[in-house]
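Incident review: delayed structure delivery

Summary: a single-chain prediction request sat in the queue longer than the usual turnaround. Root cause was a stuck worker, restarted by the on-call engineer. No data loss occurred. The affected request and its eventual output are reproduced below so the record is complete for anyone auditing the incident later.

Affected input:
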Amino acid sequence: MASLDTSGVRFPSVVKPSPLPHSSNTAFEFLFSQPFRKGTATWEASPKELQEHVLSPIPPEKPIFRDGKTSATLSYGRLYQDALTVASSLTDGILNLKPAPLSASDPKINRGAIISPTVLLHLPNCLPFVTLAYGVLASGLTLTAANPVLTPQELAHILTLSQPAVIVTTAAGVANFQLAYKLLPADLQTKLGYGTKANIFVVNTDADDYGASAAAVAPPLRNLGGWTVNDWKVLLPANPKPFTPPKYTGSEDALRAAMIFWSSGTSGKSKGVVLTHRAIGSALIAVWHASTLGENERLVGLPPFYHIFGWANVLMVGVAFGATVTTVSKFDPVSYLKIAQETRATHLHFSPPIAVLLAKSPLVDGFNLSSVRGCTSGGAPLATSVIEQVYKRLNILIKIGYGLSETGGATQQQSMTWEDLKKQLGSCGPAYPGTAILVRSVETGKPVDVGQEGEICIRSPSNTISYLNNPDATSESFTEDGWFCTGDIGKLDGNGNLYITDRLKELIKVKGFQVSPADLEDSLCASPLVQDAGVTSIYHQDHATEYPRAYVVPFDKEVLKGGKKGEEFAHELRKHIEGKHAPYKWIRGGFVLVDAVPKSPAGKILRRLLKDCKGVHVQVYEEKPRAKL
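Output delivered after worker restart:
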């Protein structure tokens, strides 16, 4: 780890933002305006020292997205036109949805955010996701996206908060939404009308011909489990009505909700993170100047597009930077390495487990990755030793950054050489241009000195405006002067590099996804077998990720003796959790059977003490060492 350079001088841990323009108008119009060319309004408004980083014009025929399985492609020009067609169909076609009026902004609700009728994408990375996402951005409606592996209970929570007017999913997804729909109150079921309003659209991710043909044909309406559903391609009619994206003037783009991400919180259930059109566009300006990406990049689209890491660093980058992105819907190490080799990938984006693959797996020796100039690891911490091993083995730099759904990004290592990167190892690099960082005392709320630990706070045009319909979480997360309080503990060095040292919020990071211990504790305690439970994390070195571990007090005290009875008890709980939660939330760290969960006098679980609890450990998932991949 690089040593802190404070030069013996005490000064507050505050990084002031460098001057940087924010975007304007819809995020769609901004991204397709090729803003990083010389002479654009964004270029003109950028500091002189940043103006040398420019792009050439992006030709309409340039492939921007490519399907990793079929090699079907979307050109820059076709994506633009098809997105406008989707926007036309949503607002003036078969659905006739209209963006909420500007008068809908109420400072007392969602801090003034204007939430329009919402379109929910429930898909893996694929070409339809791309076109649909950009179509919603163009329409002025609000987009949201959910992980396809979420359970019906988890989907019901998202439906309750966001009340989507449209859902786009797979055939398997329809079955899950039908189960989720049954969990909703009767009046909400009537309002949403899924299955009868023809507002459910299906993508066949295994056999969709979109991108492989000039004019893909949509099959007719069909019935799935009693619901009437459309193929998504009915949103791409051969002769669409002309569509012009709305124009946002003044600060309207800073109020209109473009995207809602879903972020787990310490209180349990997911929170809807509302990002405005200005936030999304401004985040791309920061990414452009903080990254080392340039023209004609070839990227592997593995990070999920429904996650802020994949959204801001891959999906949006494809259009804004004119990069060619090859989509990957599901990770398989051989397929991933093969795509990186065959596409002559120039930059890879991934979570820490892929970095471990590059560092240790013998599979890598069979592939030529010489085209890869660098990698970005995000979503969770990455050990310095892994970064060193990858550089030694492949001569590839892995740079890490720090960001949240709520901030659209925050910091990024910007080193171009190993000698420079070595000085930043252990840190997340300096703040993005246009981003301010404050490290404040947890006790007093005042700035601490450089080199001292405190809570990290961020202020930038890319920040969320609000948590969707969650005023308590919103007020707890923002200061009166606009700082977003991350709940992460860290420190700044004298060069402005940020170090993450702890978490105030007790989230578990599983391969880049956030898992709330409280959520799992609620589910465990709902089992008739469980008297009490506490959940914390363990770190799996070989998998380079945290996993949840549950400390459980059984009603039947005979279980505490372990043996066959303990095994049966733990596996019953395993099945209980699997029925309620997505796979990344499963208790892969095992169950520890204990006689009590440590708590404060007020009854709060003392999670920092859980690892000291003595009990019988039962591992319910088989180990799969990464080194043997």
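Verification: The chain is about 25% helix and 20% strand.
Action items: add queue-age alerting; document worker restart procedure.
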